[in-house]
Design goal:
Distance between the termini: 22 Å
CATH class: Mainly Beta
Largest sheet: 4 strands, antiparallel
Oligomer: single chain
Number of domains: 1
Strand content: over 45%
Order of helices and strands: EEEEEEEEEEEEEEEEEEEEEEEE
Helix content: under 10%
Strand order of the largest sheet: 1-24-23-22
CATH architecture: 7 Propeller
Number of strands: 24
Shape: globular
Length: 251
């Protein structure tokens, strides 16, 4: 592995808030950047559609299918709930983990939902039936974040054990483990699935090429990098931080 020199532009600061930023997303227009501010407690609001109420405790993670018809939520009690976004009906409740669910992801074909927990485990589920398909064990501490590559082949997981695990999504096998300098708080794949970005507790963002395993570090945030998102054209990366800023990187 080697460190690669890169030409990133000085980041544009798009938003300064009075609270930490916990989520960002990019659309094809820069005006479509969304910042998620305080963490949800016990309800999920879908503007002009439904309010989905969960009385089981704090909601730490949500994921929505590409067609927008199904939403999955997970939280403090380790329960995973599957909702119909049109009717607001709770379709299934799965006792998924023995500890809090911190992150969720849905495969591009909507067949799988993946849950990651403070119990150090990742679980792959059939979204339609609720059947458990695989349990992945490779981390030694809380799993804070997961992401599926856009081509649907890889799953990446980041943990407070300062590692990122790359998994084969089709068979659940561990491919490799990437070392990080601090807790991994957020991860994102580029659109071509060739690049992985990881945000750390110390404010750094580390970028890996999954083709040649080169990596480099961006050091610009003064607080934990809570969220990352690549733009659809792959030319920009947005980062949201506990330092109350959202930054946009162009390369």
């Amino acid at each position: 592995m080697f460190v690669k020199q890169i030409n990133w532009k000085i980041p544009t600061i798009l938003l300064v808030t009075t609270v930490m930023v916990t989520g960002v997303a990019l659309t094809k227009k820069i005006s479509g950047l969304n910042a998620t501010l305080p963490r949800l407690k016990s309800s999920l609001s879908l503007p002009s559609m439904q309010t989905l109420r969960d009385d089981s405790g704090w909601i730490y993670a949500i994921a929505i299918t590409p067609d927008g018809k199904t939403l999955v939520s997970g939280g403090y009690g380790g329960f995973m709930k599957i909702w119909d976004t049109k009717t607001g009906e709770l379709q299934k409740t799965l006792n998924a983990h023995v500890d809090a669910i911190e992150s969720l992801a849905i495969s591009p074909d909507s067949n799988l939902v993946i849950s990651a927990s403070w119990d150090n485990e990742i679980k792959l589920w059939n979204l339609k039936t609720g059947e458990l398909i695989h349990t992945l064990k490779g981390h030694s501490d809380d799993i804070k974040t997961i992401a599926i590559s856009p081509d649907g082949k890889l799953l990446a997981s980041g943990s407070t054990d300062k590692t990122i695990c790359l998994w084969n999504l089709s068979n659940g096998k561990l491919i490799k483990t990437l070392e990080n300098q601090d807790w991994v708080k957020s991860i994102a794949f580029s659109l071509d699935s060739h690049t992985l970005a990881a945000g750390s507790e110390n404010g750094n963002i580390k970028i890996w090429s999954l083709i040649d395993e080169g990596n480099y570090i961006l050091m610009q945030h003064s607080g934990a990098v809570q969220s990352l998102a690549f733009s659809p054209d792959g030319k920009m990366l947005a980062s949201g931080s506990a330092d109350h800023t959202v930054k946009l990187w162009q390369f």
